[in-house]
Amino acid sequence: MPEMLEVRNLKTYFPVRVGILDSLRGKKYFVKAVDGISFSIDRGEIFGLIGESGCGKTTAGRSVLRLVEPTGGEVIFDGVDVLKLGKEELRRIRRRMQIIFQDPYASLSPRMKIGEAIAHPLIIHGIADRREAREIALRMLKRVGLTPEEEYYDRYPNQLSGGQRQRVAIARAMALKPDFVVADEAVSMIDVSMRASILELLEEFRRDYRLSMLFITHDIAVARLIADRTAVMYLGKIVELGKTRRLIDNPIHPYTKALVNAAPSITRRERREKVKLRGEVPNAVNPPKGCRLSNRCPFATDICRTKEPELREVESGHFVACHLA
Ligand SMILES: Nc1ncnc2c1ncn2[C@@H]1O[C@H](COP(=O)(O)OP(=O)(O)OP(=O)(O)O)[C@@H](O)[C@H]1O
Ligand SMILES: [Mg+2]
Q1: Which ligand is the nearest neighbour of the Cα of 57?
Q2: pLDDT on residue 262
Q3: Nearest to 144, CA basis, from 130, 160, 128
Q4: Among 122, 125, 176, 202, which one has the highest count of C-beta atoms within 10 angstroms of its own C-beta?
Q5: Residue numbers of the domain that contains 292
Q6: Cα distance between residue 58 and residue 73, in whole Å
Q7: Which of 11, 58, 66 should be mutated for ligand 1, with most atoms under 8 A from CB?
Q8: Could you give the number of structural domains in the chain?
Q9: Does ligand 1 have an atom closer than 6 angstroms to the CB of 58?
Q10: Most informative mutation of 29, 31, 184 for ligand 1 (most atoms within 8 A of CB)
């Protein structure tokens, strides 16, 4: 399968505000939110990105679309380096690259009816005229289960729940028939009763449009359901990457093991090795030397504290960044 997206050594650092003294001394600090990650997503593939809060998932997703400007690296979308595009070229490619934002309360304009929020981009991108755009919007509302769709079309975001807004955001992104979507916690607020059918709908879109997706979630069980392959992030780095089932059922990296242990909904495999990490996630301004998990990992040895482990293929298609793997 040809690659739809290839991300190479992507870095996104945010400057940190410093006190007057540091500022006078000319000191600058950065949050290394994404610190050199590489992965690729095939056409029609759903690629999961998991990890605890603050590990850099959203920043990675937004950087790929240049909604935040990356500090370095390459993002090759359908053969084009997105980071090198000028404004106009970027605008044109944007129709093909959509995002479902993590915060559904911030992602819809409060003054725009939700039907219009779906129809508007179709008109802007010259895909449909007003009448067609309305029809497509109605169809999409129905597909995401907001029925009767004529009634929902005229509602305002403040009349919807968080989960319903997420469904609008999905409808809006999918109406454009994109080639690639960043779905950032796209089902996190959707009622459990509705979630399975929305995940199925995403599957349908994937099949219908051969859509590729970067599926960001903190919920390992959701990743396990939908993602073909998954990468695990810790402090701005990918620590493990592989086929989702294999990765979650047989994690190799101590961080992935701890993450899977802590997921209440994944209780199978009683005999799985239990890994408990010490302390808390350090801040991303001054990550630990060597392996970033070394100060918390029960297995850490000297090399872990001095040398940064590379992502290595330990079995076919399964990559782990751990000296001990
Ligand atoms: N615009 C910004 N300016 C400064 N720091 C930021 C900015 N956006 C994110 N960060 C920092 O970058 C790091 C990664 O944040 P990010 O939102 O990407 O994490 P996340 O994995 O999506 O977390 P969550 O699961 O809570 O959504 C955090 O330390 C965060 O505080
Ligand atoms: Mg996030």
Answers
A1: 1
A2: 86
A3: 160
A4: 122
A5: 3-96+178-320
A6: 17
A7: 58
A8: 1
A9: yes
A10: 31
